[in-house]
Each structure stands twice: as C-alpha cells, then as structure tokens.
User: Fold this.
Amino acid sequence: MKSITDYTKDELLAYQESLQKEYEGYKEKGLKLDMSRGKPASSQLDLSNELLKKPEGLYSENGLDVRNYGVLDGIPECKKLFSDLLDIDAAQMIIGGNSSLNLMYDAMARLCLFGTQGEKPWKAYDLEGTPVKFLCPSPGYDRHFTICEALGIEMITVPLTENGPDMDIVEELASKDPLIKGIWCVPLHSNPEGICYSDETVDRLVSMKTAAKDFRIFWDNAYGIHHIYEEVSLKNILEAARTYNNEDRVLYFFSTSKITFPGSGVALLASGLENIKEIKKHMSAQTIGHDKINQLRHVEYFKNPEGVKNHMKLLAEELRPKFDMVTSKLEEHLSGTGLATWRSPKGGYFVSVNTLPGCAKEAVRLAKEAGVTLTGAGATYPYGNDPEDRNIRIAPSYPVLDELEAAMDIFCLCVKLASTKALLNK
Ligand code: PMP
Assistant:
C-alpha cells in the first residue's frame, strides 16, 4: 500500500473528496459517542455490586466501631490487605478517602504550605518570584498537570521512552537545578501511553543526585495491577529507595477507583517513616479520619490479595475486547498509511495515538462534530500544549462494543481527513 504521505496533490484531492463524503454521512447520523475519559463501563461496575451489600460487620479487627470517629490512617485489616497486595510495610501507609488524586493534591499543597523536614515551603519560592518546578514525563495524565498549574508550580516536559522517563534528561535537570522539586510518575501502564518503567528507571530515580534536598517522586501507581494482556512486574520503589536510605523521596499513591467504584473506592499513600509522621501531623488538623465503613467493606469483599487479583482478571476480560477493537480498527484504517502511530498497551485504561505533526487538534475537532468526544488534544502535555500537536488519548472503557466500533471508524476517518488537509496545505 502506498503511504498517503507519498500521494501527489491530485491523488490527495481525490482522496480528500471521498473522505469528506464519508464524513458527511456520519455527521448526518447524529451519533453521540464518548471516548474522552477513563471511566469504567457499567458492566465493569456491576462486577463490584456485592460491595453495596457490605459491610456485614461493624467492628474492625482492633475492636473499633467503624461507624464512629477514630483512626486517622486506616483500619488495620485494610492496611494489611494493601500491604500484602503491594508489598509495602503497613507502618509506611496511610489509608485515605475515596481518591488518590485528592491525596496527591493534598501532598503537593502541604509541601507548598509547610515545606518538609525543615526545608522552605515551596510557595515561598513563588512569592520571591522564582517558583519551584516539577518534571512532567509526557504524554502524561492531565490532572497531574492541573495540580501543578493550580498551585503555581512550573512544569518541565520530559520525554517518555519505552522504559519510563528519559532518565539521562531527568538526572541532568534534577542534579543541576535546586528549584526542581520533583517528578510525576505513572510507573505501570501509564496514562495514556501504557508505558511500564524498567527496574533500571526505578533504581535511577531513587538513587540519582538531586540539587533539591526536598525532591519528591510522586509515584502514582494508579494502574499497578491493571493488566489486560500481560502481567508486567514493577520494581518495588520503596524497597529500592531503602537501599539508598532515601524512602522519604518517594510519595506512593494507589486507589481502588479502577478496581471497584471510581469515586467510592479506597485510596492510599505510602512513604518513608519520617514523611508519614509529618503527614499524619498535618492530616490530623484536616480530618478526624477517613471512611472506615468503606475500608471494611472492601476488606470483607476482597478478603485477601488473591481476591483483588481474581477481580482484576474479570475486569481484564471486560476490557480486552474493547482494547482489541481499538487496535484492530487502527490497524484496519491507519496501518501503512503513514498518518499515525500508536502503542498497543499491555494494560491500563488508554491507547495513545500520534498523528502527523499539527493534526491532533483538527482530528479531535472533526470527531466532535461527527458526534465522537475524545480527550482534548494537548491535554496530555503540561499547560495543554502538545508542542507538535500530535498526541490523542483514546479511552475505550466506557462505550459498549458496538458504539466503540462506530466511534473508532469515525476517529480513524477524522485522522485521515485532518492529515489530508495538512498535507495539502504543506
Ligand atoms: N492517576 C491516574 C494516572 C489516573 O489515570 C486516574 C484516573 N483517571 C487517577 C489517578 C485518579 O484516581 P482516583 O480516582 O483515585 O483519584
């Protein structure tokens, strides 16, 4: 097949005309399809409905009435469940509320407001006119970038490789600039690229020299057990950091949002013991405690890590046909055209597509007009600014399979149409 990038002008014009006809046909159908956010479909949520009947008990293992006030950092059996699942010492863990993003925002806000371990509050730099900076491996999770923007933290885009952030660049930047205070990481099945960090990346992150003493790795392991095609292992970052006496560099986040119910799950934060002590002190001014009924509910439902892993297998079965659909449609419509590249993830929630430079925004706009909502182009980069305007995040979980099929046909058509326009304008 001749790559469309090699078409002559006349060939391109004829091709555009046929695409446009097809596109108008879709527009007339008045479809309304949503591939914008990583929301589970109701069929996935149904798999956790038993949770709604729980808890059966009222008391936690240590005799505490879960309906009442008490316990800032989580009931012991819930800590144990996550401790066994993630191989993190329970003493290094705080069970939070329903959202890990909330824990991330609070962690960042505390660092801005109070600083950590005697270092200057990060907001003070801002007030002096030299705001602190964060490294943002991109394409990445838009809500991480929103936290930085909201708190006045400057973002530095760092490219992602097959093995995680480009560590040569990360080390170079972090070792030289004391205003660089941390890095965002989604280490397994990353949002949106599906990248899994190698052991070497983990080791380099915890062992590298940083000019800032209070450098923090925001380790958002949101998809840590979300394997769809293949189980990928991830080096235990807290354990790795321990060997360098550096556990407080790591702030580890996890939640059951994409396991049970988003918005009604259980989230956690783990770190070195000094950090945990400091965080608990601040947190005790913020809340008397989080939702222990929900913690007990989750423990009763899953019982042990095997219970969680078995549940993840059921979820993977729900998701696999949808990911198959996305990749097969990309193959069918775009393979060999020279118009797009994509990664086939092993797990997680997204497929990341890269168009020709300058075509992502237009493809997303065209799709929207034909009734298919995608994540806004640019959202996967700091400040919503994809420098090459190439990256589009596809979230296949929410639509049912038929809708997804139609949405992907339209999406691929819009990529072709946007590319043809760009090629003709060259
Ligand atoms: N981190 C990442 C990488 C995510 O993709 C998401 C959900 N889209 C979250 C965090 C949000 O997690 P939570 O519901 O626990 O706040």
